[in-house]
Specification:
- The chain is an all-alpha fold.
- Helices cover 50% and strands 0% of the residues.
- It has two domains: 44 residues; 37 residues, no CATH class.
- The longest helix is centred in the first third of the chain and has 28 residues.
- It starts with a helix and ends with a helix.
- The structure holds zinc ion.
- The site of zinc ion has 8 residues, from loops.
């Protein structure tokens, strides 16, 4: 056996895991993954949903000539769920403009 072989054998020996160690490691990785996925889902849920009309910008450039382009659906907040009494469809906006 050369020095190199001995070194490799030692190295491989260190890198050999028992079935229990592999199972435990897999379980730990799965738990971390689940925890991370849950954390991401929670953070996503906590984020304010962007207004579907202005895509969260609060303004529509095509309506710059009307109230400075403020999005009527979210009233410039950029957030979905902020429905004002003035909520109108795209066609309604055009009617209001002309
Ligand atoms: Zn909007």
């Amino acid at each position: 056996m050369t020095t190199n072989d001995t070194f490799l054998a030692a190295l491989l020996g260190e890198l050999t895991f028992t079935a229990e160690e592999i199972t435990a490691s897999e379980a730990a990785a799965a738990a971390r993954s689940a925890e991370y996925t849950a954390k991401l889902a929670a953070e996503r849920a906590a984020l304010p949903k962007p207004c579907g009309k202005c895509n969260g910008r609060g303004r529509l450039e095509m309506f710059n000539h009307i109230s400075g382009g403020v999005c009527f659906q979210c009233e410039g907040t950029g957030k979905a769920g902020h429905f004002s009494s003035r909520r109108v469809t795209h066609g309604g906006d055009m009617e209001a403009a002309f």
